[in-house]
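To whoever is covering the structure queue this week,

Two jobs came back overnight. Logging them here so there's a record in the thread.

Job A:
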Amino acid sequence: FFFKQKTAYEMFRSLSKQTVKPHEVIIVNQGETPFENLEAFGIPIRQIMSPEKGLSRARNVALNEFTGDWIVFIDDDEEANAEWIEQIEKLAQAYPGAGIIGGSYYPPIRHDDSASFVSRLYPHGDTLLTAENLFAPTEIPDFFLDVWGGNFAVRKDVVEAIGGFDVAMGRGSKAFNGGEDTDYLIRAVTKGFAALTSCRVVIYNTHGARPHSPDLEKELIEMATLLRWKSEQDPSTHSPAITSRLVPYGKKKAAVAALCRGVLFNDQLWRKEAHDKMLETLNREWKLQNGCLVRK
């Protein structure tokens, strides 16, 4: 999913330096300007110009086009560690039960957290993710067992069983600006596939810094509400046991906050209001079809 020509060329360069070369690199270009001189990277690159916008739509184009046993997603503002593909290949052999593999996100070396936000993820060792532990908290503060979409390998049989990403979700969607990777992971694990998160699968989030958003917490609450709502609509695609770990607010604290008019736990009252508003929107405007959102 490529917006930025300059950063994407740096990403291509990182793929050309892999210890195990990619079978094929598929570029889903949703811009108006094709990438040029791609043959200079010395790896097989196939560019697909796609008029439809949105991250999930771009990934679905790639899902329909790839020909190997695995497809591995990387974003245009990232670079891959030189052993990225090699480690995914080794882990796929070592953990044959894993149908999805993901791993670490390292921020830029000189990133200033006070100036901007950048995603980062530091899994410890190798951990298989199932319905029993997906999104479970760890000893690392604010870190949950998860796999993120910019470092996301999917086996062919998972794609055949699950289908594509929900096009109403993800950056560039006109509906919900995120969560498509988490949604896909839930759908796969609900179907009985395991995922694997590993410290060995390393992506550098080189150009991923973006301004701090005052709406970030609200967006996270809305996404947790959306995924829990999906499990209520169709438990066969979104396991309630999994989505119950995505807690948009504390019910007891919100109740106390309502009684004392926000003197205590006012943040939980605000979170509950955001949750309730999102729930109203979902019930009024959306329904679920094969695990994906469809407007009524």
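Job B:
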Amino acid sequence: DIFFDKAILLTASAKYDEAFNLLQKATTVYITYKRWHSYVKTLIQTAKTLIAAQKMEKVLHFLELAIQINNENLYSNPSLLTETYKVFAAYYETNDELNTATFYHQETINICQKNFGSLHQTVAQSYHKIGMIYFAQNNVEQALIFLQKSLEIYLGLEGESHTAVASIYNTIGDCYNQQNNYDLGLAYLEKSLNLSLDLPNTNYGEIAGAYNNLGVTYYQQNKYGKAIDYLQQSLEIKQEQLDLDDFNPDIEKAYNNLAACYMAKGAYREAIIYNQKSLLAKSRIFGEQHYTLA
């Protein structure tokens, strides 16, 4: 299993060609010795590596072969089947075929519930994914249904210690804000921030996102002082902890949000400063002829 294990590490390090070559070597060994379970796992991992490398042409081939070998030699092993369907979903999400991705997430849930019960991490993950798809499609009502289902399972399994819980709280807060239910939105966004700050493995991206979303919510409530405080904290984390430069799209958005807040507050000098920073970043990111600079 050395080839397989090393390929996973190489994929995580974005060394995709090396990982793919090792997976092909692992495949040869597993076929020779009829290690079908390991062979199917290798086919699934090969598909994952190709998706990570944005080489999508052969992904479906490896996934369909994984299904075939699983059916013929392993009596449709449910653990391998759910893992295969998860990668199918990831493939279609990457290709922006969100309805098909939702179908495979739901199939993953069905198989998992039938074989392992509803209180299972894979079920929670798939509900979360479906919720995020609906959120991306601006279907807030459906997004809330699936996010709440996911949250309930995560809380039942591990309480608030699971890293996904902070992310779910954050998206639920965004959903309520889109419904103009700002009190509930703020409550969930603050839960997300507090939980992210308390987790042992600090996720600065999650924390910066929570500060930003709180700032935007206070802006929508015309509470510009609070909005500026949260947006400034978000900006500082992005610059100091995430090491993003002035020409990163996230930094440009932060400058733009701060400019809008200062303008609404009547602090025109600060608004001009941040507006100029935003315009300079946009010109570097999109080019000087981009419509956003008009």
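Note for Job B: The chain has a mean pLDDT of 94.

Please reply-all if you pick these up so we don't duplicate work.
Q.
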